Automatic annotation (TrEMBL), chain A:
GO terms for cellular component: cytoplasmic exosome (RNase complex); nuclear exosome (RNase complex); nucleolus; ribosome. Residues 22-161, 164-235 form the Exoribonuclease phosphorolytic domain. It comes from Trichocladium antarcticum. Belongs to the RNase PH family. Keywords: Ribonucleoprotein, Ribosomal protein. GO terms for biological process: nuclear mRNA surveillance; poly(A)-dependent snoRNA 3'-end processing; rRNA catabolic process; U4 snRNA 3'-end processing. Residues 62-75 have a biased composition (Gly residues). One of its GO terms (molecular function) is RNA binding. The keyword Transmembrane does not apply. The lineage of its organism: Eukaryota, Fungi, Dikarya, Ascomycota, Pezizomycotina. The keyword Electron transport does not apply. This is Ribosomal protein S5 domain 2-like protein.
UniProtKB/TrEMBL annotation, chain B:
It is found in: Cytoplasm; Nucleus, Nucleolus. One of its GO terms (cellular component) is cytoplasmic exosome (RNase complex). This is Exosome complex component RRP45. Belongs to the RNase PH family. The keyword Magnesium does not apply. Signal peptide: none annotated.
Length: 273, 293
């Protein structure tokens, strides 16, 4: 595919006109499905993801290996986080059927499930199940990051106790693995075109800390580049956390203003006008 | 669906407390591998890897087939993993568990997508004939750290493998038997190896290499790094689990590089030994009627 990101060096602008440390436009909503326990809709650039959370509830009949178990099985003392991901056929440029048993999808499911069950207080809900279903409507890079962010928002909406937000984003590097140029810049938040061409990784951190919950790199890259990419990625996750936090707070304020919920004791420090 | 027996509470506590004091049940250092053995079979392309009580066998094979329509210039390269009930009662035939899916994805990303094997060299007649190379991974005994063992076995098997020599004359493809022409090795570009870290403790502060099955059952997170000896990362997978400090992960990668260089040396050494063993002193020596009796 003759894509051209080599123009970066001329003006230090990327194919979509961003600087190296800029995120794409993030638009997020929570409580999009009125009937669900928790739901969210998230756009990162042109990557669009919908998420619905059901539970914690009594585990239903086991589906054949679909949702990868995170919390040690539904019969255990922790709630099981079952994730199912549906990638719509129309989500990418070339229309592709993604079967249920697609290994890549199963890997994504197990990653989202394990990432969230470390942050969710699953020990509060023994013998139960938290169902997270994610729908990918449009793909333009950073898919795993968008899935994790959307799932985090939906879990917040469902009111499941959790340690902190699990915020994710991607980072890349302007050099290819072969070129050993020292001047390679790290890049934040790759789109599909950059993801195809440049080495990159997905990072998810817990809240405002430097602690990495998910780190996935699928391309060949010099080991020396990792530090720069990881630093930019972790920084991006902090920005992402702020964005997610703002979405949750704005929705909360609106719900108080509309009288959907009563103003709670803990909300006194929020300035609601 | 049978479930794996979980370690008892006291067993769990014993392992974890020992690890807090930087001790392991088998007396190893935290970043020490179990005794590692690699042997090749009589046939080309069979590698048997043993890490303590974990044993993985990989067998490479090749056949001539039609290439995929969308990739007429590439050969076909597949890695098949099967975890049979022989390794653990939790594994069932024809019903891949999460472990199996993650293992096969990791091997695929490490060996296939990093371009370790030059698939273009497997093309015989563009769009019509190509080699299809397949590696079957069999887990014979499962005592933890399947990923590192399987990856080492796959790489060793492929580097040991020889495919029959071929020639094309006037559009006719001839595949020669080993007696007619010496089989040729695959065009191999670099050797990636996996190194898996297991993390223990509330914040994943204790990092351990080559976890046994018991340690794997009580760990809070794991991170697999695939590198080659030139210091290129082929893949990193920390798929969830308890969050670990970013700086600690960077240190883990640095240590992984030294381990990968050791693996690389080991495979090179064993391959050289194997070549020496197979070399009977040329064609004349092979034809001679003398034998040891």
């Amino acid at each position: 595919m003759p894509l051209d990101t080599s123009a970066y060096n001329l003006a230090l602008l990327r194919v979509d006109g961003r600087r190296w440390n800029e995120l794409r436009r993030v638009h997020a909503q929570i409580r999009t499905q009125a009937a669900a326990d928790g739901s969210s809709y998230l756009e990162m650039g042109h990557t669009k993801v919908m998420c619905v959370v059901t539970g914690p509830s009594e585990p239903g009949p086991r589906r054949g290996g679909a949702g990868a178990g995170g919390g040690g099985g539904s019969g255990g003392k922790d709630a099981e986080v079952a994730v199912s991901i549906v990638i719509a056929g129309f989500s990418s440029v070339d229309r592709k059927r993604h079967g249920k048993g697609d290994k890549r999808t199963l890997e994504l499911q197990s990653t989202v499930s394990n990432a969230l069950s470390a942050s969710l207080h699953t020990h509060l809900f023994p013998h139960s199940q938290i169902n997270i279903s994610l729908h990918v409507l449009s793909q333009d890079g950073s898919l795993l990051a968008a899935l994790i962010n959307a799932a985090t928002l939906a879990c917040v909406d469902a009111g499941i106790p959790m340690t902190d937000y699990v915020a994710a984003c991607t980072a890349g590097s302007t050099s290819t693995y072969a070129a050993n140029d020292e001047a390679a810049d790290p890049l934040l938040d790759l789109n599909h075109q950059e993801e195809q061409e440049l080495p990159g990784l997905t990072v998810a951190t817990l809240g405002n800390s430097d602690r990495v919950a998910v780190l996935v790199c699928e391309s060949r890259v010099q080991v020396g580049r990792l530090e720069g990419m990881l630093a930019v990625g972790v920084d991006g996750c902090k920005q992402m956390r702020e964005i997610l936090d703002r979405v949750v707070r704005e929705k909360g304020q609106r719900m108080i203003q509309e009288g959907t919920v009563e103003r709670g004791v803990g909300l006194n420090d929020m300035d609601v006008d | 669906m049978p479930r794996e027996a979980e370690p008892s509470l006291s067993e769990r506590q014993f392992v974890l407390q020992a690890l807090q004091e930087n001790l392991r049940l088998d007396g190893r250092e935290l970043d020490q591998y179990r005794p590692l053995e690699l042997s090749f079979g009589d046939q080309y392309g069979v590698a048997d890897v043993t890490f303590g009580r974990t044993r993985v066998l990989a067998k490479a094979s090749a056949e001539v087939t039609v290439p995929y329509a969308d990739r007429p210039l590439d050969g076909i390269f597949n890695i098949a993993t099967e975890l049979s009930p022989m390794a653990s009662p939790a594994f069932e035939v024809n019903r891949p568990t999460e472990t199996e899916i993650l293992l096969s994805r990791l091997l695929e990303k490490t060996v296939r997508r990093s371009g370790a094997l030059d698939t273009e060299s497997l093309c015989l007649v563009a769009g019509q004939k190509c080699w299809s190379v397949r590696v079957d991974v069999h887990v014979l005994s499962h005592d933890g750290n399947l990923i590192d063992a399987a990856c080492l076995a796959v790489v060793a098997a492929l580097r040991h493998f020889r495919k029959p020599d071929t020639s094309i004359e006037g559009g006719v493809l001839t595949v020669y038997t080993a007696a007619e022409r010496e089989a040729v090795p695959l065009s191999w570009l670099h050797s990636p190896f996996c190194v898996t870290w297991s993390f223990f403790g509330d914040e994943g502060e204790t990092a351990v290499l080559d976890a046994t099955r018991l340690e794997e059952q009580v760990r809070v997170a794991s991170c697999t790094v695939s590198l080659n000896k030139h210091g290129e990362i082929c893949q990193i997978a920390k798929l969830g689990g308890v969050p670990v400090d970013a700086v600690a992960l960077l240190q883990c990668t640095a240590v992984a590089l030294t381990k990968v260089k050791e693996f690389s040396e080991l495979v090179d050494k064993k391959l050289a030994e194997d070549v020496k063993k197979r070399d009977k002193g040329g064609f004349m020596a092979e034809l001679s009627a003398e034998n040891e009796r």
